[in-house]
Design brief:
Rossmann fold, single chain, 16 strands, alpha/beta, 2 domains, 11 helices, 8-stranded mixed β-sheet, 23% strand
């Protein structure tokens, strides 16, 4: 299974015509409610991108409001790490920093007394979890962790700046890095450079781990991180999770890809023990429609620095500019279903072939952008 198949969830949206209610709306931001297997939940959309889900507290049956979902579920690479009682014992669990809070899902893993820091650059997201007095709380992961006695703090602002300013040196056992930037057509380039990784390693204990969430439908990000890790002589491993565990009603577990970076291989040994059908650990590769290329190409071509070139040439899964047409298609779907009255089934018959054309066009364009430049020319890709 190649990495491209793992990335579709990040840019996913609600199913066409899904009758979910909007309970909060701000420019580009929606909180909706849905139901799965008779269980109610809320989820966050940003420009139709699905950023997180939380089940509601229930008076009947099992209570799932603390269940970590989507890319952070219990069997995902990051879930396995945070559940590891050797690395994160329930008593005296070491500190964690998360660069990118969204709905605060990772706070579900916070133990009483544990320091759990977040950064968040979208102020509205913070208010959805920690609202002003008298305002509604739409997601409770963070408040639940506070109620358990976890020491949760949120730093509002750009992630690298907030970590440099507020993160103590040699303090965290784990730093989780959300690589996508909103809108997700962009990434946090400033977090993927050699200098950024060197700075973040300085915030870790000797046995600490950087966990990069690299799920992305547009770009391969693992070679960039692997190049910097190799340059800095750091150990790293790529974890790919299919999200499917042979269970019915398993729609809360999403496929994901993670790159773990540490000072030495020994720190990553326990992670490698979790190798089974649904989750694999492997070395970084460059995927194209023609071949997989190993580390020899990664070291030569994909090292990013703060002042140097930061190009995606050779790393495209799809063309982001062409993929924007999917948003236009969804706008048309909404208009014809909600205003004109065309049924869900009729609309799918019309829109699915158009969507297929957009995907094929995007893939062809991506392959062209991945071709090496003629000798002597410099990469001019600044996306």
């Amino acid at each position: 299974m190649n990495a491209a198949l793992l990335m579709v969830c990040l840019a996913g949206s609600t199913a066409l015509g899904q009758p979910n209610d909007t309970v909060f709306k701000a420019p580009g931001i929606e909180v909706k409610t849905g139901q799965s297997d008779g269980k109610d939940y809320s989820y966050l959309l940003y420009n139709r991108v699905y950023l997180g889900r939380q089940y509601h507290k229930s008076q009947k049956g099992p209570n799932l409001h603390r269940l970590p979902t989507t890319y952070f579920h219990d069997k995902s690479p990051i879930g396995l790490l945070l559940k590891d009682e050797k690395a994160f014992p329930p008593k005296d669990a070491p500190p964690v920093m998360v660069l990118g809070m969204d709905v605060g899902t990772l706070a579900a893993y916070a133990h009483p007394g544990q320091t759990f820091h977040f950064t968040e650059r979208v102020p509205t997201f913070v208010k959805l979890s920690l609202p002003d007095k008298g305002k509604e709380r739409y997601f409770t992961f963070v408040q639940d962790a506070l109620d358990r006695g976890a020491k949760v703090k949120i730093f509002e602002g750009e992630p690298r700046t907030m970590l440099e300013k507020h993160g103590p040196d040699k303090f965290y056992k784990l730093i989780v890095i959300e690589t996508y930037k909103l809108p997700v057509i962009e990434v946090h380039k400033e977090l993927l450079t050699k200098e950024a990784i060197q700075m973040m390693m300085g915030k870790l204990r000797d046995d600490g781990i950087l966990a990069f969430h690299t799920s992305n439908r547009y770009y391969q990000l693992t070679p960039i991180i692997a190049s910097a890790a190799n340059e800095l002589k750091l150990a790293h491993v790529v974890g790919k999770d299919s999200g499917y565990y042979g269970e019915m009603k398993n729609d809360f577990r999403y496929a994901s890809e993670w790159v773990m970076v540490a000072r030495n291989e020994k720190v990553l040994e326990d992670l490698r023990k979790h190798q089974f059908k649904e989750l694999t650990w492997q070395a970084a590769q460059v995927f194209t429609t023609r071949r997989d290329v190993g580390l020899e190409k990664i070291d030569k071509e994909f090292l990013w620095t703060d002042k140097g070139e930061q190009s995606f040439r050779g790393l495209y899964y799809s063309d982001p500019e062409i993929d924007k047409l999917h948003d236009t298609l969804r706008d048309l779907e909404d208009f014809f279903m909600n205003r004109v009255g065309i049924s869900h089934t009729q609309m799918r018959r019309i829109s699915e072939p158009i969507g297929g054309v957009i995907r094929a066009w995007s893939g062809i364009s991506a392959e062209a952008m991945n071709r090496p430049l003629p000798k002597g020319m410099k990469k001019d890709d600044k996306k």
